[in-house]
Amino acid sequence: MQNFETITLEKSAGVATVTMNRPDVHNAFNEVMIADLTTCFEGLNDDKEVRVIILQSAGQSFSAGADINWMKSMVSATQDENKADSERLAKLLRTINFNSKATIAKVQGLALGGGVGLVCCCDIVVATEDAKFGLTEAKLGLVPAVISPYVVDAMGTRHARRYFQTAEIFDANTAFRLGVVSELCTDAELGEKVSKQVKLLNSTGPYAKEIGKKLVMSVVGRTLPQQKKLDEYTTQVIAAVRVSDEGQKGLNAFLNKEKPQW
Which pLDDT score, from 0 to 100, does residue 74 have? Predict the structure, then answer.
């Protein structure tokens, strides 16, 4: 089994459990975690023994979004470098969203920014009642561009227009109402609730699940080739915003622990 630096992978009875393992930074992701997750999900996509994938995290939070040191590199990077960086995240999200296997996100604590993107790429999301969600990029003068296709799919255009602009934190009940979360439970029930979904998924035909997922994607006009074209646009958007005056002001204010003067 392949070893990863920032995640762990366990397989048992057709279920693969992928655990983001950077609890000291609330599982914020950097270029290493993006690469690890991409490689892992690509391998699981082709693994004939795997039928269900659980994406979870160690520690208090699911994922707090971008790692602060990764964000520091964005400030000095050129627009082309920022685009290349964003394309790697876009590939990860495509790999999860269009994976041939059924995927379950197991969420506790914080899911912010790109963490919400990971959640929205999964087929089923089980979250604790005290989980918190946020699309907080606008507070930094940025936009949730690369994750936007998946977030809009989950919550719809009306809610996305609100949360992309206000950057407000919303609770698990709101996430459930918006469609970001499939099921809510207490901390103690989280494992049991996820196991129930695994049991349900294992009771259905593997090929039927795969075709069913592709059917949904096709009906809403979001096939893999179409997503790649859309990613070309979203990565251009975030690259341009990161190097803009407002993006630079917001990033520098955040890194210096200051409030940006809009």
Answer: 87
Q: Coil, helix or strand for 43?
A: helix
Q: Express as a percent the part of the chain with pLDDT over 70.
A: 100
| 228, HSE (Cβ side, Cα atoms, 13 Å) | 3
Q: pLDDT digit string (tens) for 174-196?
A: 999 999 999 999 999 999 999 99
What SS3 state is found at 77?
coil
Q: What are phi and psi of 125, to 5 degrees?
A: -125, 120
CB 60 within 8 A of CB 19: no
25 — phi, psi (to 5°)? Answer: -120, 30
Q: Give CA separation, 162 vs 157, 215, 239, in Å.
A: 9, 29, 22
- Angle, in degrees to the nearest 10, between helices 68-76 and 79-97: 140
| Closest-CA residue to 112 (of 63, 170, 149) | 63
Strand order in the sheet with 110-112: 110-112, 132-134, 169-171
- Which residues does 54 contact at the CB level (< 8 Å), separation at least 6? 15, 16, 17, 18, 103, 104, 106, 194, 198
Direct distance between the N- and C-terminal alpha carbons of the chain, in angstroms, rounded to an integer: 49
| Nearest C-alpha neighbor of 190 from the set 59, 26, 56 | 56
